[in-house]
């Protein structure tokens, strides 16, 4: 049984192009940083659920510091950094250290000289309720951009999602992959009951974190999904971007494309999210975390699905973050340590 620690495509994904492939063939417009699954805890090293992957709970903070130092020293600093969720580990809740650990990581992020956009993953909800997160420093919705005269592009307060423009004609959309979830919600609420019903309909196991025997292994408790309301909002934003010839980058803790991810790590209703994205021309890239081993695939519609390798399972002598350089015709991921370089060309019209 695999729990978001896929090894099936490592051989292919470890390929790193020669440095000259990353040479600047056209004018670079801007860049942004990506980092995923820091999962800090003040604990000795441990292992994943199967006991075959080492987790470096304390060292993850040093990796974060290294990434921030790198971004701060870049000749042309990134416009922003995307933190793809699971910022502290669920073990913190057990030791009543959630707030203290979050404070340590947020103090580290304060060293970063550019804005950081925080995504929420399952480990955020192991530590905090949704209400707590909404009122915490992990809520970066204040960095959103508004589209004048288009009220349909304003997200609801019922989910944590927003969009922003780091550079003209490029729109980034941050999605809430736990909008439908049994995590972080009051168990007496109708939403919890509704989500539990969906989960149990697809997962008859006593242990709801187990994908054993499931036809759709993504229906486990540590995953979640996108509500119809959130997908309608996404559709409205993408409609605006199509009309205005913008290029769109989407960010989510959970991946949505099976070819880029172990199936047990996908969002519950990943097909619904893909259907919305594929009905538009503007989306060029979808960044996610969650898998720890990373992954990549270009879908039939030319959208590049990139899962960033997790900091938590990165040995002290390595690293796990990247800088994405954006050009008029492509994006180039300059990976560090476990994160490979990638060239992602935009589809031709």
Automatic annotation (TrEMBL):
Cofactors: Mg(2+)
Pfam families: Metallophos (PF00149)
Coiled coil stretches, renumbered: none
EC number, as in UniProt: 3.6.1.13, 3.6.1.16, 3.6.1.53
CDD domains: MPP_Nbla03831 (cd07396)
Enzyme class: hydrolase
Superkingdom of this protein's organism: Eukaryota
UniProt keyword Transport present: no
Keywords of this entry: Hydrolase, Metal-binding, Zinc
Calcineurin-like phosphoesterase domain location: 32-293
Keyword Zinc set for record: yes
Reactions mediated catalytically: CDP-glycerol + H2O = sn-glycerol 3-phosphate + CMP + 2 H(+); ADP-D-ribose + H2O = D-ribose 5-phosphate + AMP + 2 H(+); CDP-choline + H2O = phosphocholine + CMP + 2 H(+)
Protein family per UniProt: Belongs to the ADPRibase-Mn family.
Subunit structure of this chain's protein: Monomer.
Protein's recorded name: Manganese-dependent ADP-ribose/CDP-alcohol diphosphatase
UniProt source species: Bos taurus (Bovine)
Name of encoding gene: ADPRM
């Amino acid at each position: 049984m695999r729990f978001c620690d896929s090894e099936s495509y490592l051989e292919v994904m470890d390929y790193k192009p020669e440095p000259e492939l990353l040479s600047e063939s056209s004018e670079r417009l801007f860049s942004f940083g990506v980092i995923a699954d820091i999962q800090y805890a003040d604990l000795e090293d441990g292992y994943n659920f199967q006991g075959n992957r080492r987790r470096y709970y304390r060292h993850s903070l040093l990796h974060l510091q290294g990434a921030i130092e790198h971004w701060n020293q870049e000749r042309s600093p990134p416009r922003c950094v995307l933190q793809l969720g699971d910022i502290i580990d669920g073990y913190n809740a057990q030791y009543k250290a959630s707030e203290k650990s979050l404070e340590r990581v947020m103090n580290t992020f304060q060293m970063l000289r550019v804005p950081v956009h925080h995504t929420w993953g399952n480990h955020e909800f192991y530590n905090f309720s949704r209400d707590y997160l909404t009122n915490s420093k992990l809520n970066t919705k204040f960095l959103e951009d508004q589209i004048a005269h288009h009220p349909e592009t304003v997200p609801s307060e019922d989910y944590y999602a927003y969009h922003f423009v780091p550079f003209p004609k490029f729109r980034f959309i941050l999605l809430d992959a736990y909008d439908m979830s049994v995590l972080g919600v009051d168990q007496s609420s109708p939403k919890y009951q509704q989500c539990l019903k969906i989960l149990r309909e697809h997962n008859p196991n006593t242990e709801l974190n187990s994908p054993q025997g499931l036809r759709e292994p993504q229906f486990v408790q540590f995953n979640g999904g996108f509500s119809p309301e959130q997908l309608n909002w996404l559709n409205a934003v993408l409609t605006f971007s199509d009309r205005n010839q913008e290029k769109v980058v989407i960010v989510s803790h959970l991946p949505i494309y099976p070819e880029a991810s172990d199936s047990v790590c996908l969002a519950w209703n990943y097909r619904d999210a893909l259907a919305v994205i594929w009905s538009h021309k503007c989306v060029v890239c979808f960044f996610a975390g969650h898998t720890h081993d990373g992954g990549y695939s270009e879908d039939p519609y030319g959208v590049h699905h990139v899962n960033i390798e997790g900091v938590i399972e990165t040995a002290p002598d390595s690293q796990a973050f990247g800088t994405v350089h954006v050009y008029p015709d492509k994006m180039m991921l300059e990976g560090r340590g476990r994160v490979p370089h990638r060239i992602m060309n935009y589809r031709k019209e």
